Amino acid sequence: MPALTSDRSYAGKTVAIIGGGVIGASWAALFLVNGLKVIVSDPDPEIESKVQALMAAALPALQALGYEAVDVAANLSFEKDNARAVAHADIVQECGPEKPEFKQALWKIIEAAAPKGALLCSSSSTIPASVQFTQMADQSRLLVGHPFNPPHLMPLVEVVPTPKTDPAITARALAFYRGVGKVALEIKKEVPGFVANRLQAAIFQESVFLVAEGVVSLDQLDDVVTNSLGIRWATSGPFLSFHLGGGPGGLPHFLEHLGPPMEAAWKYLGKASLDDATKARLIDQLGASYGASSFYALSETRDEKEVAVINGLAHVQHAS
Amino acid sequence: MPALTSDRSYAGKTVAIIGGGVIGASWAALFLVNGLKVIVSDPDPEIESKVQALMAAALPALQALGYEAVDVAANLSFEKDNARAVAHADIVQECGPEKPEFKQALWKIIEAAAPKGALLCSSSSTIPASVQFTQMADQSRLLVGHPFNPPHLMPLVEVVPTPKTDPAITARALAFYRGVGKVALEIKKEVPGFVANRLQAAIFQESVFLVAEGVVSLDQLDDVVTNSLGIRWATSGPFLSFHLGGGPGGLPHFLEHLGPPMEAAWKYLGKASLDDATKARLIDQLGASYGASSFYALSETRDEKEVAVINGLAHVQHAS
Fold first, then answer.
1. Domain topology for A14-186
2. Beta-carbon separation of A316 and B302 below 8 A
3. Do the bridges between strand A14-18 and strand A37-41 make them parallel or antiparallel, or are there none, so unpaired?
4. Where along chain B do its domains lie?
């Protein structure tokens, strides 16, 4: 049963992707199987072969999720000049370098060159739109549409408007990402790291602390997560997990009885540092754990597993 | 394809479970489908019907994982007296109240009554074995075998020896849990919360902070996790995820280039408190998000999803 396909309601629309790196190429693959026309704008002289290679790696996963990959090559083109690339775009998905000055100058060019009704979204994971829009005449047009890597596979898109964003623009962005099969969620405030990356930073700090302290090895830490919390969180988020973990009394019972030990735990959690000794320890243990397999073999297995999880969950969702 | 079944190498052995609550009954179901004889020891006058009901809910998931549920009832018995319950036990799995005095007194009784070669394990999530063994004559026998809830479904068991534990006992405990189909990992130091619950506490603090600050609602926070990090961590732990997320340069490249922003993120992560206002906010949003479904309906869906994830991942593992 198809898991994360869409009804291709944006087929025929044109999206300009600024920056054809790992994120841009993954977006391109997703947009193409949704029937959109994709123009990639990137100054790299080898951009065409690089994007083709990244897309070739992404398409099997999209097909495993239920998409057909017909006409993909016919709808993909390249245009190095940013202004020409966006001239007829319905959507602009920016995936350029994470440098404020670059993005500020870019949006000035795009605003002048793109159609007035084009949807303008940045993929940035770290620079909020209110830092990017400083040179725009109409600052109500810009927002962040931050995907979770890899964008063609991971359902989440964090849609982060600024205080100036027109609510109608936010609604259009949410509708667009949902229209290409994503789970788009509106983040209400521009906080650093948005939501997913903050949660990831929190668990990573404790992970580094526990390995640095010698409580577990690096691969044991990974095995703890994949054999417990990962399975739990793929199916229910932290709040629903504790709602059900508290028994029939639910979250209220949990907060009453396990709230105090939880607050005590927050006090004893570790502080980590990525100093030279810690980095050396991590890299040494990494080699012992994963050194025998190539980056590409490990990535392929990870993608297959992610597809298996997404498809497995979709079966349950459709059945219930 | 069966996912988490075992070769039933412990079939015919006898396990005494002290405490027939949610954890004890879940262990009972797992041990029974592995062919063990199970004696549940619990003072509750209604313990038999309660354990039967919990087991009836657990067996479908075990069957979905590939276990057969034959002879389950025939191998289950009850004995309120702790000493009599352990008299012929090969393994004692303690699941009593999380009170140090209770466990200290209990282990004294069990040590005197159980066979000298019996494996003695506590399911405690919070009280290390070195706090529990104070009244034992031979303190080298005790360790923690902490399951992740629900034990019959979740692969992980954290095996936590004390500094006094005989390494041969630790090895026997690891072999036993692996023999009943679990992923048993040895935790090298007795730190509060062991590993999985510390990681869970870290992500929960940031989750509560983000909802308390109004960045996202409670159900959005859950949706962020299930549509991004959960899928990632069900397939690859935090270190392997960043090893692959850093591109072909792997974790060394990640630490070099994204280490500084990661350390900066650790500084801006939130501090949360479960004060009355926060609890009220969480419970209010919980009702709006999940209030329409019963605890039992939500739990059943969660179990189905967890089985789907475990089985989906097992297919990939067996294929690669």
1. Rossmann fold (3.40.50)
2. no
3. parallel
4. 14-186, 196-235+273-319
